[in-house]
Specification:
Its EC number is 1.-.-.-. By secondary structure, the chain is α/β, with parallel strands linked by helices. It contains eleven helices and 14 strands. Bound molecules: NADP nicotinamide-adenine-dinucleotide phosphate.
Amino acid sequence: MDKIKLGGSDLDASRIVLGCMRIAGMTDDALHRHISTAMEAGINIFDHADIYGGGECEHKFGKALKSGIKREDILIQSKCAIRNSTPEGDKSGEYYDLSKSHILDSVDGILERLDTEYLDLLMLHRPDALMEPEEIAEAFDRLQESGKVRHFGLSNFNARQFDFVQKYVDQKLITNQIQFGVAAPHMINSNMQTNTPFEGAANRDGGMLDYARLNDVTIQAWSPFHYGYFDGIVMDDPKYKTLNEVMEQVGEAHGVTKNAIAVAWILRHPANMQTIIGTTNTDRLSQIMKAPDVSLSREEWYQIYKAAGHMLP
Ligand SMILES: NC(=O)c1ccc[n+]([C@@H]2O[C@H](COP(=O)([O-])OP(=O)(O)OC[C@H]3O[C@@H](n4cnc5c(N)ncnc54)[C@H](OP(=O)(O)O)[C@@H]3O)[C@@H](O)[C@H]2O)c1
């Protein structure tokens, strides 16, 4: 699989990232097999957050690393900002915290759970309404100087907020994680429906896609198979019957499954986005890993887009 330089940095990363949000329930053996399969297929980058599984995902991954995977062969990224999140999704005590002390404490916890000396990339998980960018800048400097974090990025920030944080921090922000997929293509809907009265014209991200291309920021598309906000997976969902049929047809033409087509659809976009996949099923993972070999024609790409229910004005 081709690698890209993340946000123009020296991090050479695969276009597919293995998301580790759902690994808490895997056995150690299954996880080891899963990571090995991912690496054999070309994945070299793994996505975490301090809150995934209440910390258990990082802990499990750290243990898996000790079974023969060389730290320097992979890139590990993690995120912080969300406090009092529970694995069960109870949001009653949750809040966001991008204070200097919380960022520094979070990284110490992340490194301990992952049992590693450094993160290749730290991202701020969500914008904190009370964030003070000077504090973020001080935290980033400390983390970089101590060697605990090599590079920095954001997650779920819009283009304007991206500029806002970038103005204060010395390190180039190289990535932004945003939900994106065939059933959640808001970033491109708003571009193609500009100034129309249609719902798709709503600009929810401040033009992040164009911002990323203009400023050499890598977009990492999360939850690529989902629709809504974790409302479900498009695969085999009767609400997405036409989409499933079209992805199957296109998949047959390219000799891959529709799982690979859904990811190939994201990779076909010339912004060179990465796709963070979250499957814990190793067979599915192997199917999805065929995506980078598929080059969808423009006609196929639009056919899939429209089959998901999106319109062209
Ligand atoms: N920055 C953020 O705010 C943010 C938010 C959410 C996620 N993320 C990152 O993005 C990663 C991916 O998120 P996600 O897990 O929601 O993404 P996803 O890849 O869209 O969804 C994976 C989930 O869908 C299930 N699934 C069922 N049928 C499937 C099929 N045919 N093909 C593929 N998956 C199928 C998987 O089950 P099986 O395990 O049985 O395959 C798994 O539970 C996370 O691990 C995390 O690293 C970041």
